Amino acid sequence: xxxxxxxxxxxxxxxxxxxxxxxxxxxxxxxxxxxxxxxxxxxxxxxxxxxxxxxxxxxxxxxxxxxxxxxxxxxxxxxxxxxxxxxxxxxxxxxxxxxxxxxxxxxxxxxxxxxxxxxx
Amino acid sequence: xxxxxxxxxxxxxxxxxxxxxxxxxxxxxxxxxxxxxxxxxxxxxxxxxxxxxxxxxxxxxxxxxxxxxxxxxxxxxxxxxxxxxxxxxxxxxxxxxxxxxxxxxxxxxxxxxxxxxxxxxxxxxxxxxxxxxxxxxxxxxxxxxxxxxxxxxxxxxxxxxxxxxxxxxxxxxxxxxxxxxxxxxxxxxxxxxxxxxxxxxxxxxxxxxxxxxxxxxxxxxxxxxxxxxxxxxxxxxxxxxxxxxxxxxxxxxxxxxxxxxxxxxxxxxxxxxxxxxxxxxxxxxxxxxxxxxxxxxxxxxxxxxxxxxxxxxx
Lengths: 120, 314
Description:
The complex is a heterodimer.
Chain A: H1 2-31, H2 39-44, E1 48-50, E2 53-58, E3 61-66, E4 69-73, H3 78-85
Antiparallel strand pairs in A: 1-2, 2-3, 3-4
Chain B: H1 2-22, E1 39-41, H2 51-54, H3 59-70, H4 75-83, H5 91-107, H6 109-128, H7 133-148, H8 150-153, H9 155-164, H10 167-187, H11 202-210, H12 214-227, H13 236-251, H14 263-285, H15 291-305
C-alpha cells in the first residue's frame, strides 16, 4: 500500500511535469510575434523569386506578400536555401539581433551589400 | 483493479498532455492555399510605433530616409527609378533596365533642377543668416510645375519597364514603390517630436550632425511645431489611392501609364509638401545656430542639392 502510494505520487508528479511542459510550450508558441519586414527594408533589398512572387530574406526568414498580408515560410524552402548559398555570408551589424546574409555585389564595389546607399 | 484504474487515469492524463504539447505546432493564422505548407502570417509593421515606417535603422534604410528628407521632386517616378536597382533583374534585362532608368532620370531633370534651386537658395540663406523668402518661393513654384509634368514625361519609360519585367518582378516593383512611399511619408511627417529624435527624426539627426545643445533642439522643435499651420495639408488618401492604382495596373498584363490620371497631381503635391516642410524645418533651425553650425549646415544642404541621382557611383 505504501509502495502504491509512492508510485501514485511519482506518477502524478510525472504527469504534472508533462502537462506543465506541454502547456509552457503552448504558451511560448502563442507569444511569438513575427514582425513583417519594414517598408524601408522592402524598398532597399533585393528579392528572390519563388512560387511566382517576390520573397524577401529578413530576420532569418523568407517573407512574401499575399493579398496585402505579409506571410513567411516557417521552414525554409530548399530552392531559397540554395539561392542563399550564392550570397556572401558577410558579417554586418546585427539587425534586430539577427545576422543577415547579404548579397555579394559584383557590379558596384561601393554597394557592398547590394542595397541602397545615398551618395552626395 | 487498482492497477487498471491507475492505468486508465494515466492514459487519460498523457493524452491531455500530448494534446497540450502538440497543439502548439501550428497556429490558426496560416494562409490558405499556399503551395508550400509551412507558412505563417506576420504582424504588420504598422503596428510598431517607430520611425522610418516602422524602421530599425541600418545604414541602407538610414540612407534612404536621408534621401527622402531632401528629394521630393520626382514623386512616384523617383520611387520607381530607385527601385530598379534592387529588383534582382537577370543579366539579359540589365541593359534595358539601365536605359529605362537613364531615361526616367532625364525626364525628371527639370524637377530635379528646380528642387536644386530651392535647396541652394536655402543653403545660401543659412550661410548668410538670412533666407531670401521670395527666391525660395519662386523656386518652389518652378518645382511645382516641373513635378506635375514628371508623370507624363516618364509614361513611355513605364510602358517599356512593364514590357521588360516578369510578373513577379512587377509585383516586387509595386512592393518597393509602396515601401518608398511609406518611408517618404514617415520621414516627411509633420511631427518632430522628441520621441523621434533617437529613431530617425530629422531634428535628432541634425542635433548629432551639428552638435546642437538641448536648448537649441527644444527651441527648434517649438518653432517648427508652431510653423505647421503654415504648411499646406498633404492628402495621404490621394497618394494611397495612387499607390494602389499603380500596383493594380502595373501587375496586370495590360498596363497603360497614361490611364493613371492622378499621377501628375500626386507627384506635384508630394513635391510641394516635401520641399515646403524642408524649408520650414530649416527656417526653424536657422535662428539658433552659431556661425560654425550655419556654415556646416549650409555645406550639408549644398551637398544634397548637388546630388545627381548618384546612388551608384560611376
